[in-house]
Design goal:
The protein is mainly beta. It has two domains: 5-223, Sandwich (Jelly Rolls); 229-350, Beta-Lactamase, CATH 3.30.450.40. It has four helices and 21 strands. The strands form three sheets. Strands 1, 2, 4, 5, 7, 12, 13, 14 and 16 form a nine-stranded antiparallel β-sheet that branches. The protein has a seven-stranded antiparallel β-sheet with strand order 3-6-15-8-9-10-11, with no helix packed on it. The protein is elongated, with a radius of gyration of 24 Å.
Length: 351
C-alpha cells in the first residue's frame, strides 16, 4: 500500500537552497487500513486512539461545467474514529520516521462529530507525548488556537474565535523558521507571528481531542534538510560576528562518548578529541582564556535548560596589544549568549 513518498524541490528561503517535500500519499490505501509511516500515541489520559483509512467526499479539482456534473468524489482520508469522551485525552498520529527543524506544512482537516469536543489539528516540533506545540480548530467552540505543552502542562491558548463549520474541509498552514512560528487557517493569518524557544525541532503528528471524530488529508511538509543544532550555532556565530576567526563546539554523542569536536567553522576539525582546557571547562563549569600566536582564545561552557554544562565552546579572535584575559572573555560572551538562547538540552545540540 503506497502511503508515503519523498520528492526533492527547490525551496525559496532567504536565498535559493535545496530542500525536500514530504507528501503523505494514501491514494491507493484501502478503507479500514491503519496508516503506515505513522505511530498512534496518546497525550493525556483515556482509551487508545483508533486511526483508520476511510472514504470521504472531496470536492473535484475542477469546477463542474453543468449543474448535473459530479461535484465531489470519494477518496481515502485518515480518520480518528474512537469516541472516548475523557476530557484530557489527546489522540496523536505521529509521523515517526523524520524530525523536522524549519518547515512549512499544509493539511486539510474536517471535524465530523463529537458530543464533548469537535477538534482537529496538528502537533509539531513534538519531542514526546508531553512536549509539543499544537495548532487546532474547534467546531463546537468556534476557535482557532495555538498552544504549547511543556512537561505535560498546557499553557494558555492563543487565537481568535472564528466560525468553524463541521463536516467541511479546512486548511491548516504552519511555518516554522528558527524560533518563529506563522500560522494560517484557510489562507488567513488569524494569529500574529509567534516566537518561542522551547522546541527547536521535533516530529509532526495529527491531533484530536476527547471524543472528536476527525478526518485529515493532503498532508504536505516542505522543509530544509536538517543540520545538527551545534553546526547551526557555529554557522550563525561566524555570520553574526564577522571578526571571529574560528569557533568549535566540544561535546559527547552516543556514538562517541569521549569529548570531541561536534561542530566547527573548519569542518576538518569535526571528530577530533578535546584538549585539556576543553575537558576542564566542561568538568569544572568554568571559562579559560589565553593566546595562541596572534589569536585570543576563549573556552566557555554551554548549559542546558537546567544550568548544567553540556558542551565547551572554543572561540578564537584576533588579539590586540594590551588585551587581557578579561577583555577576551568579554568579547566572547555575546557569542555564548547567542548560542545559549537556542539550546535546551544535549539532545537538542547534537540532533
Amino acid at each position: 500500500m503506497k502511503q508515503c513518498r519523498w520528492m526533492s524541490l527547490a525551496l525559496l528561503c532567504s536565498a535559493l537552497c535545496i530542500g525536500a517535500e514530504r507528501i503523505v500519499d494514501i491514494s491507493d490505501a484501502q478503507p479500514g487500513a491503519v496508516p503506515s509511516c505513522f505511530r498512534s500515541a496518546l497525550a493525556g489520559t483515556g482509551k487508545p486512539a483508533e486511526w483508520r483509512i476511510v472514504l470521504d467526499d472531496v470536492p473535484t479539482a475542477l469546477e463542474p461545467l453543468t449543474p448535473q456534473a459530479q461535484k465531489s468524489i470519494k477518496v481515502p482520508v485518515i480518520a480518528q474514529i474512537s469516541t472516548d469522551p475523557t476530557d484530557e485525552r489527546f489522540p496523536l498520529l505521529i509521523l515517526d520516521d523524520e524530525v523536522f527543524g524549519d518547515f512549512t506544512l499544509t493539511v486539510k482537516v474536517k471535524t465530523v462529530s463529537g458530543s464533548k469536543e469537535q477538534m482537529a489539528g496538528v502537533a509539531f516540533r513534538l519531542q514526546d507525548e508531553r512536549n509539543f506545540y499544537v495548532l487546532r480548530i474547534s467546531s463546537l467552540g468556534n476557535t482557532f488556537r495555538f498552544y504549547k505543552v511543556f512537561d505535560g502542562v498546557r499553557d494558555n491558548p492563543i487565537g481568535p474565535e472564528v466560525q468553524i463549520a463541521s463536516n467541511v474541509w479546512h486548511e491548516i498552514y504552519i511555518q516554522c523558521e528558527g524560533n518563529r512560528i506563522r500560522t494560517k487557517l484557510n489562507g488567513e493569518e488569524l494569529i500574529p507571528e509567534l516566537t518561542d524557544n522551547s522546541f527547536a525541532q521535533g516530529k509532526i503528528a495529527l491531533w484530536t481531542k476527547s471524543d472528536s471524530v476527525s478526518y485529515f488529508r493532503d498532508l504536505r511538509i516542505s522543509f530544509k534538510p536538517r543540520e545538527p543544532l551545534a553546526e547551526t550555532l557555529v554557522r550563525e556565530a561566524m555570520q553574526r560576528f564577522p571578526k571571529l576567526l574560528a569557533v568549535k563546539i566540544f561535546s559527547t554523542t552516543p556514538a562517541k562518548p569521549d569529548l570531541h569536536v561536534i561542530a566547527s567553522s573548519d569542518k576538518q576539525d569535526i571528530g577530533r578529541p578535546a584538549g585539556k582546557y576543553e575537558r576542564e571547562c566542561l568538568s569544572g563549569n568554568t571559562a579559560f582564556a589565553g593566546k595562541a600566536g596572534d589569536r585570543a582564545v576563549v573556552t566557555m561552557p554551554l548549559h542546558d535548560r537546567n544550568g548544567d554544562p553540556i558542551a565547551a565552546v572554543r572561540i578564537e579572535m584576533k588579539s590586540f596589544p594590551g588585551q587581557t584575559d578579561a577583555n577576551a572573555v568579554g568579547r566572547a560572551t555575546p557569542v555564548i549568549k547567542l548560542m545559549q538562547g537556542r539550546v535546551q538540552s544535549l539532545q537538542d545540540l547534537i540532533q
